[in-house]
Amino acid sequence: MTRKLVFITGNKNKLVEVQAILAKFDIEVEARALDIPEIQGTTLEVSADKCRRAAELVGGPCITEDTALAFHALGGLPGPYIKDFMKTIGHSGLNAMLTGFPTKGATAICTFAYSAGPGETPQLFVGETEGEIVPVRGPTHFGWDAVFQAAGTGQTFAEMDPVFKNTISHRFKALTKLVDFLKTLPE
Ligand SMILES: O=c1nc[nH]c2c1ncn2[C@H]1C[C@H](O)[C@@H](COP(=O)(O)OP(=O)(O)OP(=O)(O)O)O1
Ligand SMILES: [Mg+2]
């Protein structure tokens, strides 16, 4: 039976990837384009709080997702604050931040959260993909895709066939964990 999930996100590119990945698991995604306020804290704290607020807003079960980009040379920053960094300093700024540091290594971290409804503690599912920050290569329409070269591929996420990105990405890895969890719930 096809399962339906309500996904609260203001990001159309995320939605496209989530729908493509979950279609393979026979899960239909109903999107609500709400921009949920995000607190400061660890990626886990930000993710759990975002989902708690989303469940209150929609009044039922839902999923949310928070994406972080952790630079190894900077102790994991910008982490969950990558969106503000992108907006403020852009692709070249992300490269410039690492000038003089011995490693350009970065971890893309995706944290999905599932809440069974208002007042229900969100369950978290984390996926990570290793890579490094490189000068822009490929289309620039999705966040930092064009400056993140995934380890072992020689390609930035932006250069890749989207179908391939969806088999190695932080998002794919987190979603497989969410799918395993959903299988334990009644239909
Ligand atoms: O696979 C990705 N490849 C490249 N860039 C990405 C990816 N996934 C998220 N991103 C960007 C979007 C935003 O600049 C930041 C995460 O912030 P984040 O708060 O999780 O996303 P968002 O505010 O755009 O949407 P949402 O309404 O789901 O919170 O990293
Ligand atoms: Mg956000």
UniProtKB/TrEMBL annotation:
UniProt entry keywords in alphabetical sequence: Cytoplasm, Hydrolase, Magnesium, Manganese, Metal-binding, Nucleotide metabolism, Nucleotide-binding, Nucleus
Protein EC: 3.6.1.66
Lineage: Eukaryota, Fungi, Dikarya, Basidiomycota, Agaricomycotina
Residues the record lists as binding ITP: 9-14, 50, 66-67, 142-145, 165, 170-171
Subunit description: Homodimer.
Presence of the UniProt keyword Lipoprotein in the record: no
A single GO cellular-component term on record: nucleus
CDD domains on file: HAM1
GO molecular function: dITP diphosphatase activity; ITP diphosphatase activity; metal ion binding; nucleotide binding; XTP diphosphatase activity
Name assigned to this protein: Inosine triphosphate pyrophosphatase
Coiled-coil regions, chain positions: none
UniProt cofactor(s): Mg(2+); Mn(2+)
Co-factor: note: Binds 1 divalent metal cation per subunit; can use either Mg(2+) or Mn(2+).
Catalytic activity: ITP + H2O = IMP + diphosphate + H(+); dITP + H2O = dIMP + diphosphate + H(+); XTP + H2O = XMP + diphosphate + H(+); N(6)-hydroxy-dATP + H2O = N(6)-hydroxy-dAMP + diphosphate + H(+)
Positions that bind Mg(2+): E38, D66
InterPro entries the UniProt entry points to: ITPase (IPR027502), ITPase-like_fam (IPR029001), RdgB/HAM1 (IPR002637)
Superkingdom in the source lineage: Eukaryota
Role, per record: Pyrophosphatase that hydrolyzes the non-canonical purine nucleotides inosine triphosphate (ITP), deoxyinosine triphosphate (dITP) as well as 2'-deoxy-N-6-hydroxylaminopurine triphosphate (dHAPTP) and xanthosine 5'-triphosphate (XTP) to their respective monophosphate derivatives. The enzyme does not distinguish between the deoxy- and ribose forms. Probably excludes non-canonical purines from RNA and DNA precursor pools, thus preventing their incorporation into RNA and DNA and avoiding chromosomal lesions. Pyrophosphatase that hydrolyzes non-canonical purine nucleotides such as inosine triphosphate (ITP), deoxyinosine triphosphate (dITP) or xanthosine 5'-triphosphate (XTP) to their respective monophosphate derivatives. The enzyme does not distinguish between the deoxy- and ribose forms. Probably excludes non-canonical purines from RNA and DNA precursor pools, thus preventing their incorporation into RNA and DNA and avoiding chromosomal lesions.
Family, similarity comment: Belongs to the HAM1 NTPase family.
Keyword Transport: no
Compartment annotation: Cytoplasm; Nucleus
EC class (word): hydrolase
Swiss-Prot/TrEMBL GO biological process terms: deoxyribonucleoside triphosphate catabolic process; nucleotide metabolic process
Transmembrane segments: none
